Amino acid sequence: AAGVIQSPRHLIKEKRETATLKCYPIPRHDTVYWYQQGPGQDPQFLISFYEKMQSDKGSIPDRFSAQQFSDYHSELNMSSLELGDSALYFCASSRSNRETRDYGYTFGSGTRLTVV
Amino acid sequence: GEDVEQSLFLSVREGDSSVINCTYTDSSSTYLYWYKQEPGAGLQLLTYIFSNMDMKQDQRLTVLLNKKDKHLSLRIADTQTGDSAIYFCAEREGMDTGRRALTFGSGTRLQVQP
To answer: With an 8 Å Cβ cutoff, is B48 touching chain A?
Structure first.
């Protein structure tokens, strides 16, 4: 079965650079979420999109932005990178159709961002 | 605000049962999840339970929910060395609300001794 695809798997950037992470949700999933997991920490919600519109916002820094495109893939744009941005960034998708009884979130394998 | 708590570490012997506990504070939590994360890997959904259920069983996994005490547990029967990982409990509000983001616990590191 198709899963949530994230790219790249690993990314190394220098301070003050920018980074773009991509996420391709499971087909027919209408909601995409971004999470950040720092070393030894639990995942923290950043932002989500439902049907290409921002639906919820968590602890996303102002230096970060995200969008969902017409093909439902999403990109997380990170500017003025700081050392503290080094983390595993997860994308997840879900489908809101309750008739399908598919309420499980599915996470991608993550993008490991290292800022040096 | 919502808060999800887990014990940090659990060590068991291979073949024994493991019980990982989780407490949450948000009374409106409708969906509760268990995820497994191996070192450097992604989050693997193990199972989830609706708040109107008391128990759910899936092969070696049994989830128990005490909604009154806001307590969730994951029991792994016949624990194997391959079960060694960090287990995260997560909760979210119902689908009818605008918020669908998950709130995670801090994770329980399960170590299985051969």
So the answer is: yes
- What is the structure's pLDDT at B95? 55
Residues of chain B with C-beta less than 8 angstroms from the C-beta of A104: 33, 45, 48
- pLDDT tens profile A6-32: 999 999 999 999 999 999 999 888 889
Name B101's Cβ contacts closer than 8 Å, sequence gap at least 6.
A33, A45, A48, A56, A58, B92
Averaged pLDDT score across all residues of chain B? 89
Distance from B60 to chain A by nearest Cα, in Å?
19
Locate A104 and state its tokens: 């499980």
d(CA A96, CA B9): 34
A70-106 in b/e form (b: 16+ CB < 10 A) is: eebbbebebeebeeebbbbbbbbbbbbeeeeeebebb
Find the angle CA(A69)-CA(A19)-CA(A82) to the nearest 5 degrees.
Answer: 135
Rounded to whole angstroms, the Cα distance separating A53 from A58 reads 15
List chain A residues with CB under 8 Å of B101: 33, 45, 48, 56, 58
Q: Chunked in runs of 10, what are the mean pLDDT values of chain A (116 residues)?
A: 90 98 92 93 93 90 95 96 97 73 76 97
Q: What CA–CA distance (Å, rounded) separates B79 from B77? A: 5
Taking CA atoms, B2 is separated from A2, A20, B28, B37, B90, in Å, by 32, 30, 9, 22, 11
* Stretch 16-75 of chain A: residues touching chain B, C-beta under 8 Å: 31, 33, 35, 41-45, 48, 50, 55-56, 58
